[in-house]
Amino acid sequence: MLQRPWLQAACVASAEKLQALAEGNSPTGDPASDPHPGQYRSSFVVVPAMISVPFRGKPRRRASARLINTAPHAWRVEHGDGRVPRYAVLSKSIDDLKAVNNA
User: Fold this and answer.
1) How far is residue 8 CA from its own chain's centroid?
2) Is the distance from CB of 68 to CB of 78 less than 8 angstroms?
3) What's the Cα-to-Cα distance from 19 to each of 14, 16, 91, rounded to whole Å?
4) In this structure, is residue 73 part of a structural domain?
5) pLDDT in tens, 18-36
6) Is the CB of residue 44 less than 8 Å from the CB of residue 68?
7) 102 conformational bin, left if phi > 0, alpha if psi -120 to 50, beta if neither
8) Rounded Cα gap, residues 71 and 27, in angstroms
9) What is the tens place of the pLDDT at every residue in 51-75?
10) How many domains in the chain?
């Protein structure tokens, strides 16, 4: 049951809600000084996935979905470094989704 297409679709739908929040939280550069304004915002992708979860000592396949950002500078935007401040877009989006759902 946990590998069925309807459950996969529910996982993807949840990840797409998170994607909308992440796109709203993501920083956008000034077109006058940034050669790629909006590249980070437009690089979010939802990918359906099957993961192995241990159950009674044996790995079991479960439906899931992943929200990833394919921009080359995604790690720097999320975690920050000496040149880029930490924006924590995905972390803030997860917190926003929890607040909306009262979790």
Assistant:
1) 16
2) no
3) 9, 5, 12
4) yes
5) 999 999 999 988 888 888 8
6) yes
7) left
8) 13
9) 998 989 898 999 999 999 999 989 9
10) 1
